[in-house]
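FIELD: query
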Amino acid sequence: MSVFPSHKKDINWRGVDLNLLISFSALMETQSVTKAANKLAIGQSAMSHNLSRLRQLLDDPLFERQGHNMIPTQKALELSVTVEKILNLITGELLQPSTFEPELFTGTFKIGLTDYAELLFAPAIFDAIHTCSPHSHLSFFNVDRHNYQTVFNDQQLDLVIGSMTNMGKDISSQYLYTEDHVCLFDSKATGLNTPITIEQYSAHPHALVSPDGQLITQVDDQLKNRALQRQVAVGSRNFLTVRHLLKGRDLLCVVSRLMAQLDLFHDDLTQCPTPVDIADFDIRLLWLHRNGTHPRNEWLRQRVASTVIKQVQQLQQQ
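FIELD: result
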């Protein structure tokens, strides 16, 4: 399918040159080939050549010599307003660095969050954006490390927050912080006190936060190497479900430290270091590389990153 309307197919688009419009504007202002050439810092022959191209392109003499002046034709006078509008549009909006004014923005910010990131940061992100951009809208999209690239493109997300790895060349990222893990349990229901041994850890039933539904992790390999085995009694992708289960039940659960710090419950659960080695993970802010220099994306990245880091510091101090 042609990108041009049918009535424009006969136009010689290769002959259309922005420099010709600039030359036309200079000729209209100075009404002199020599003065127009000096204004644009080009040779007089080059200006004469541009005028010849303009005449051919627009099928009109455009300027006729009368003494030392080049007098514009009626068509040139009619075109001058349009040409100035085009040049002002190009210089004022296309070529000038654009700015983003969040207080005037009425569109939608789209942010992809893992379950972990949404639970920790969604309220703080909303407050931070709404404070500076009260007329904007905010839409959160659930993502994980398997589908985030697809959601990025399908939903045209502005940002993604999570522990993503193996990012392609089309995605840029900013490191935010590193998260570790703790063991969480109801000390009365389990009869455990801190610290717990690896034997106690394996002897009690476990609740597992499992985004992909798997009930076996690298923890089970570590226990197997020590001739130990645990029982995963229940798994859920939702941390809130697991947290509800822990209260009043003989269950242990390994969760990220910041999740354990959330003040969503008043259940007095106990947390302690895990008796097995569980790798830390980095949380990153991601965006599409092609959108990285857009002022709106730059503003949003700065706002979200500073909000997340501040929220992490507050949770770590609890």
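FIELD: remark
The radius of gyration is 32 Å.
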